[in-house]
Write a structure and sequence with these properties.
The chain is an alpha/beta fold and 393 residues long. The protein has two domains: 3-215, Alpha-Beta Complex (Spore Coat Polysaccharide Biosynthesis Protein SpsA, Chain A); 232-389, 60s Ribosomal Protein L30, Chain: A. Helix content is 30%, strand content 29%. The chain has helices at 34-43, 60-67, 85-97, 116-125, 170-182, 191-197, 217-227, 271-283, 289-292, 306-318, 341-352, 370-373, and strands spanning 3-9, 28-29, 32-33, 50-55, 79-80, 103-108, 131-137, 142-146, 149-154, 160-169, 202-206, 231-246, 249-252, 255-258, 261-263, 322-331, 359-364, 377-389. The chain starts with a strand and ends with a strand. Bound molecules: magnesium ion (MG). Magnesium ion binds at residues 240, 242, 265, 271, 274.
Length: 393
């Protein structure tokens, strides 16, 4: 019994092509292309004897680079696809026909998470049926709508979502595809539909919901995150003080608040954003605000402190980090922070790319003790939590 896997990778996948990386099957998830992962799933499955990819005529270099890491004796010369998925599959089947296998498993390259169990179950179903497809029972209630208004609820009983692999006895599916091509019917969206049309019975093999199809850029990002190296939490703290001087407003958390005095400083003296900038820099061990924005540099005179926070956020991003949450406490007798809390949360959340609820803003007096108690100035402390790739550094 010879079993071949045919991986269909000839599509253009433009819906996911936002990274300028070309078709989605050549995009990387966790440092390995989608195609390489799909190929490896079959090449690493002992009962599978041969893996053949159907690629686009223009993708020769992409293909070579993609499979370099998974090249095994099982991977044979790729076939060149046609203008539709259906045509591409036929190209692949014809290429296999030179040395025909007994069974063929046709699989979309865009499903890199297919499990060994699913492959095994599809092969097993072919003992009793000429065709078998991996499928998921429909669990959502289905609606038909017209102009955005529901016209019908469709009973979901007995409905399945067709996935891949779809396995067939090779001679049967080749004959069915040739017959469809001869009849000039080119609108089949999967191979099971061609098998049904040709009168073959196709068994359902219940699949797992993890065998997702990578269709959009968002799918790619989700998949990439799953495969990315483990993230570890890092914590940083910051503290800042500025003295009051003559004026009529203070800047706190990027918000202008009318007050009897202003805070003295080289920039806008926003203690909240200064403390928070230092907390973020602390998570990556990257110095402090004074090192990156020296008060001696006239360039930063009167600067909006939002710039400093944006710079720290960029440094975290460049390390592959993302902010989990931040928390700030303002120490002052006045002004009151509460009325401005939401505006600060939204501004800081916007800079850090996190929801406002992940920005804690709290305030306390110091019971009229110490320099803040004597209304000589305002202090702020901040804590930042960042997830960084665990790289051993
Ligand atoms: Mg400062």
């Amino acid at each position: 019994m010879r079993i071949a896997a045919l991986i269909v990778a000839a599509g253009r996948g433009t819906r996911a092509a936002v990274h300028g990386a070309g078709p989605k099957q050549y995009a990387e998830i966790g440092g390995k292309t989608v195609l390489a992962r799909a190929v490896a799933a079959f090449a690493g499955h002992p009962p599978v004897d041969e893996v053949k990819v159907v690629r686009h005529a223009d993708d020769g270099d992409l293909y070579r680079d993609a499979v370099a890491s998974v090249a095994t004796g099982k991977l044979t010369e790729p076939a060149i696809g046609g203008p539709t998925r259906q045509a591409s599959v036929l190209c692949g089947l014809e290429a296999l026909a030179a040395s025909p296998p007994d069974l063929v498993l046709i699989h979309d390259a865009a499903r890199p998470f297919v499990s060994a169990k699913t492959i095994t179950n599809v092969i097993a179903a072919l003992e009793a049926h000429p065709g078998a497809l991996a499928a998921l029972a429909v669990s959502d209630t289905l609606k038909r709508a017209s102009d955005g208004v529901v016209t019908e609820t469709i009973a979901r009983f007995g409905l399945w979502r067709a996935q891949t692999p779809q396995g067939f006895r090779f001679a049967d599916i080749l004959a069915a595809h040739r017959k469809a091509a001869a009849a000039a019917i080119d609108t089949f969206t999967d191979d099971a539909a061609i098998a049904e049309w040709a009168g073959l019975d196709v068994a359902i093999v219940e699949d797992s919901s993890s065998n997702v199809k990578i269709t959009t850029a968002e799918d790619l990002e989700v998949a990439d995150r799953q495969f990315s190296s483990v993230l570890e939490p890092r914590v940083g703290t910051g503290f800042d003080v500025h003295r009051f001087t003559e004026g009529d407003h203070v800047w706190l958390g990027g918000v202008r608040i009318p007050h009897s005095h202003k805070l003295e400083g080289h920039s806008d003296a926003d203690v909240v954003l200064h403390a928070l900038t230092d907390a973020l820099l602390g998570t990556i061990g990257d110095g402090d605000i004074g090192q990156h924005f020296p008060p001696s540099d006239p360039k930063w005179k009167g600067a909006a402190s939002k710039l400093f926070l944006e710079d720290a956020a960029r440094r975290v991003r460049e390390r592959g980090g993302r902010v989990g949450n931040v928390d700030i406490t303002v120490l002052a007798e006045a002004p009151r922070v509460g009325p401005h809390r939401q505006a600060m949360q939204e501004l800081i959340g916007g800079v850090l790319g996190i929801p406002a609820q992940r920005v804690g803003i709290k305030a306390t007096t110091t019971e009229q003790m110490g320099f803040t108690g004597r209304r000589e100035g305002i202090a702020a402390m901040a804590t930042a939590m960042v997830y960084l790739p665990a790289d051993g550094a």
